[in-house]
Amino acid sequence: MPLVPTSSIVDAAREARVGAAAFNVIHLETAEALVTAAERTGIPLILQISENCIRYHGSLLPLTRATLALAEDSTARIAVHLDHITDADLVHQGITAGVGSVMVDASALPYEENVATTAELAAWCHDRGAYVEAELGEVGGKDGVHAPGARTDPDEALAFVRATGVDALAVAVGSSHAMHERTAVLDKDLITALHTTLPVPLVLHGSSGVPDDELRRAISAGMTKINISTHLVSVFTHSIRQTLGADPALVDSRKYIKPAREAVAEEAARLLGVLGTPATVPGQYAAQAPARG
């Protein structure tokens, strides 16, 4: 199945009132694990590559091209998205390379500069058929408005969407980046108000710290795109610690990375089921696809 547009996954999820899963790629092994999860469940998945990830690898193209190749070769519906991109050059490189969407992150700038920067990049992306996400302020854990108690104002959010022309908006409703415990409680009334007010899908960043039932309630209240990274990274690392702890003499990295990759595939598949196939909407979003051999 060819690479699919991010918009096709997000729009279908929004219509079905399920979650559009967006899981972060850290390296090739996690990309492989996530694609495997999508194939096993038949649930669409957005693979995200963050600016931090790009900086870690030294440049955008190698990992991005590999992720695009995995998506294009997959039997599942996979989109590839750039996450939290502050550098306009990386936006240009990624979209030119074939990535279908980007989160333009000008949230650290004063409001008017955020609007101007986001609007300019959104127009450039739209001219090339790419989908654009943005946010009003930084997410908690990055000294921003998603810190505990911070909330997105629906009227300001509407003004921002109208001024920038973005296709989706990340909102502050009680989540926080880089949480290692799944204890966050979201403001469902605010999610409903934002869903009612805004003409674009809502995006939840920092979802690793949100328990399953709370994610389901957030989706029911109107949240659509659900970003998860830290939780799956923790699964990968925990598996490696277990394997090396059981065999301290092990030196072949394939022998401890392979079970870690499988652990991520299993947890990602479970999360896809949590987000994408609630009992109230059976079969409307998931299209079963054969798994890899």
Automatic annotation (TrEMBL):
Active site location: 83
Keyword Hydrolase set for record: no
Binding site for Zn(2+) 1: 84, 177, 205
Cofactor annotation: Zn(2+)
SUPFAM superfamilies: Aldolase (SSF51569)
Keywords, sorted A to Z: Metal-binding, Zinc
Positions bound to Zn(2+) 2: 105, 135
Any one of the GO BP annotations: carbohydrate metabolic process
InterPro entries for the chain: Aldolase_TIM, Class_II_FBP_aldolase, FBA_II
Note describing how the cofactor binds: Binds 2 Zn(2+) ions per subunit. One is catalytic and the other provides a structural contribution.
GO molecular function: aldehyde-lyase activity; zinc ion binding
Keyword Zinc listed: yes
Name of the protein in its database record: Fructose-bisphosphate aldolase
Gene: fbaA
